[in-house]
Amino acid sequence: MFHKIKESFHRFVRYIKWLHMLYELNTYLSMCEPWEKVFLNCLIVASLCFIIYSTFIYIPGHIYSLIIYFTASPTIVDMPPLGMNEIGS
Q1: What is the pLDDT of residue 39?
Q2: Which regions in the chain score pLDDT beneath 70?
Q3: How many Cα neighbours within 13 Å face the side chain of 51?
Q4: pTM of the entire structure?
Q5: d(Cα 72, Cα 76) in Å, to the nearest integer?
Q6: Where does this protein reside within or beyond the cell (predicted)?
Q7: How far apart are CA 40 and CA 27, in angstroms?
Q8: Euclidean distance between CA atoms 8 and 5, whole angstroms
């Protein structure tokens, strides 16, 4: 029983190592010095954070605008979403 768990764990670790190697080879990080790797990884993580943040902030408003634009009657969405100032009052 434990042999199967141990083997599956080792397979998972090998897969993660393979993904890491694939990431380094595709981004050419394998040729960089350690400080360059840290800098570029921070840059990539910051870019992903900005993309995720802007997706959650801006996409709902654009979808709301598209719904209003493409629907003939505003029965689907009667009122605009509440802003942060209107929630508390």
Answers
A1: 96
A2: 72-89
A3: 6
A4: 0.60
A5: 10
A6: Endoplasmic reticulum membrane
A7: 9
A8: 5
